[in-house]
Amino acid sequence: MPTHAPIPSGSIPAAGRVVLDADDINRALIRISHEILERNKGAEDLLLLGLHTRGVPLAQRIAAHIATVEGTTVATGSLDVTMYRDDLRSHPTRAPHRTEVPAGGIDGKTVVLVDDVLYSGRTIRAALDALSDLGRPAVVRLAVLVDRGHRELPIRADHVGKNLPTARSERVSLRLKEIDGEDGVRIA
Amino acid sequence: MNRHLLSIDDLEVADIQQIFATAAEMHDVQRREVKKLPALRGRTVINLFFEDSTRTRSSFEIAGKWLSADVINLSAKGSSASKGESLRDTVMTVTAMGVDGLVVRHGASGAAEQISRWIDIPVINAGDGTHEHPTQALLDGYTLTRKLGTLEGKHVVIVGDVTHSRVFRSNVKCLTKLGASVSVVAPPTLMPSGVADWSKAAGFATSYDLDAVLPEADAVMMLRVQRERMSGGFFPTAREYTIGYGLTRNRLATLKTGTPILHPGPMNRGLEISPDAADAADSLVLDQVSAGVAVRMSVLYHLLAGETDHTDGASA
């Protein structure tokens, strides 16, 4: 194994043209929160699972919006898919993040996976495998803040904050207050 | 991180922290209904044990299996080694089958390192003679870190058969790397020769007086009296050893409250450790066993799951 894998939880540098600012992100998350509630006909049996790294604070923000709208707290958790990735062998290993599921588990729940950017779909494939080792949800849905296209697997999101047509050569960087100090989506 | 794990010297502090961070996640997997991660799917690990072992071998076996590797156990008894095959031939034969990693225990110090020069797959030392047992030290360090929060500035007392202990050699390196101060207590006959220079260089203290050291301990690690490695004459009677160096009920009372007690196992109850100490609320003996699986999962993951890099391998 080569020298230490970089810890990926570091902040992303702000580079490129801004395509979503903090208000845009907030509006998108509010809309996603309403969509989730509408689709689920309320907040019952809902579990928001954020994918590391930036899906985790996004899931918490959606839960906060739902709490204001419905007046109920929605269960949230986090999911790390490192061990389930299909490209493990092409990178140096890194320590996995925490997978935290509420005490009730995921059986019979409506699990909404929350991620920042949907791209190849491989992370979501890994997340679905990870979920099946944790239990058997009634329904699994996917919410993403940005869908930038270029899918490599038959996967689509149920709730999308913003469809962002990109070229493969472009870099989409999504920064969040909780991790990077400010909200914003940029393309470089 | 190095390609092999032969000695704690192969690890920098950052490597140890990364192994601990991963182990903490693996620990959670142990509590799940489905105790399986796909990280090593399609990989094969051979446990090559030339010495008896139950817990280390089964710990590595479970660790590999929970990471979805295929694990094969080969022990020297009843194998070609007992028919006179050389170590090199055994190792070359086994690796020619196409395995991805080798876990080795051998009675000769340096065996694992020697093997790592012959082959170009990762080699994990699961104990070589009286030299090192790095995964034991890692699991001890991990267990203590979880219990005490940090080892920085903590005083760990290691007691017993230091001369024959590879657990001690790995632990003193690992604990000092993590910032602990280490005191070693043993009867003069079980203190290795040249320990004075060594302790100065490695930064640990030595003592023959257990009662003087115990009240200052933040953790106590009892070592097994390895009668199978002794050709007699190290101490007059078992009873005399217990009186001088056993963790008896009376000594237990001199510890600060909450001082964790460790033992790498298998325990000689009544010899180096009394049942009162082994079963005390502060005894971490069983935590060490469950941490062992998590830490070994972590080590296997970091050495075998990532990109295969042949640049720093000392392939012959």
Short descriptors:
A: 188 residues; Rossmann fold; five-stranded parallel sheet; 8 strands; globular; B: alpha/beta; 2 domains; four-stranded parallel sheet; 12 helices; disordered C terminus
Please describe what this structure looks like.
Chain A is α/β, with parallel strands linked by helices and 188 residues long. Chain A has one domain: Rossmann fold, CATH 3.40.50. Chain A has four helices and eight strands; from the N terminus they run E-H-E-H-E-E-H-E-E-E-H-E. In chain A, helix 1 crosses helix 2. Chain B is of the alpha/beta class and 316 residues long. Chain B has two domains: 141 residues, Aspartate/ornithine carbamoyltransferase (Rossmann fold); 154 residues, Rossmann fold, CATH 3.40.50.1370. Chain B has a five-stranded parallel sheet with strand order 7-6-5-8-9. A four-stranded parallel sheet of chain B has the order 2-1-3-4, with helices on both faces. In chain B, helix 2 links the parallel strand 1 and strand 2. The C terminus of chain B is likely disordered.
Oligomer class = heterodimer
What low-confidence regions of chain A span 5 or more consecutive residues with pLDDT below 50?
A: 1-9
N-end to C-end Cα span of chain A:
32 Å
In terms of structural class, how would the helical and strand content of chain A be classed?
alpha/beta
Helix and strand succession of chain A? EHEHEEHEEEHE
Global morphology of chain A: globular
Gyration radius of chain B, to the nearest Å? 19 Å
The CATH architecture of the largest domain in chain B can be named as: 3-Layer(aba) Sandwich
Strand order of the largest sheet of chain A: 3-2-4-5-6
Annotation, overall tally of beta strands of chain A:
8
Number of domains of chain A: 1
Largest sheet of chain B: 5 strands, parallel
What is the total number of structural domains of chain B? 2
The name of the CATH topology of chain A is Rossmann fold
Number of strands of chain B: 9
The rounded Rg of chain A comes to: 16 Å
Q: Spell out the helices and strands of chain B N to C.
A: HEHEHEHEHEHEHEHEHHEHH
The rounded distance between the terminal residues' Cα atoms of chain B is: 20 Å
